[in-house]
Amino acid sequence: MQRMLAGELYRADDVEIQTAQAAAREWMVRYNAALSMTPAQRHALLAERLGAVGAGSEIRPPFHCDYGFNLRLGRGVFLNFNCVVLDVVEVEIGDGTQIGPAVQIYTADHPRDPDVRREGWEFGRPVRIGRNVWIGGGAIILPGVSIGDDALVGAGSVVTRDVPAGATVAGNPARAVRTAG
C-alpha cells in the first residue's frame, strides 16, 4: 500500500490494497443509494470516505472510485452523475470546479515493459485540477495530468497532457482551442 501511495510500482493483489478497495466498494453502495438524500446528507457521506471535501461540494450519484481517501475536493466543487475516479494516488480538485456527467479521471497507470506488466505491477501518477475549471461531460483525464485554474475541457475530450491556466482544450487527444490572454 505504501508503494502505491508513493507512486511506485505495486501489485493490486496485495492484501492491504484489496482490503481498502473492499471498504471503498461498501461505501459506494451506501453513497450510490443516497440520490434521494439532501446535498447536506450526501456531503456527510462524502466526508466519511474522501481525503477532503470542501464546503458546498457535491458529487451526484452514481459515483465510482478505487479508494476515495486519495480524492481531495476544494470548496464548491461539483461532479455530475456517473463520474469515475481511479485514485490510486492523489487527485486534487480546486475550489469552484465543475465536472460534467460521465467524466473519468485516472491516476492508475501501467508499466510500458510488457514483462513487468505481465507480472502484475502497476503504478500511479497524481492528477491536479485547478480552481474554477469546467470539464465537459464524457471527458477523460489521463494519469499525471495537471489542469490549470480557469481552464475549460470540451465534452468528450481525452486530456493526455497538462492544460495551462485559462486555456480551452478539446478533442482526442485534447488540443488547445484557445489560450488565456
Give a short overview:
The chain has helices spanning 2-5, 15-32, 39-49, 114-118, and strands spanning 10-11, 52-53, 58-59, 63-65, 71-73, 78-79, 83-86, 91-93, 98-99, 104-106, 108-109, 121-124, 127-129, 134-135, 140-141, 146-147, 152-153, 158-159, 168-170, 175-178. It has 181 residues and is an alpha/beta fold.
Distance between the termini: 43 Å
- Can you identify the CATH superfamily? Hexapeptide repeat proteins
Mean pLDDT: 96
Spatial extent as radius of gyration:
16 Å
Number of strands: 20
Descriptive tags:
single chain; about 180 residues; alpha/beta; UDP N-Acetylglucosamine Acyltransferase, domain 1; seven-stranded mixed beta sheet; five-stranded parallel beta sheet; 4 helices; 20 strands; about 20% helix; globular
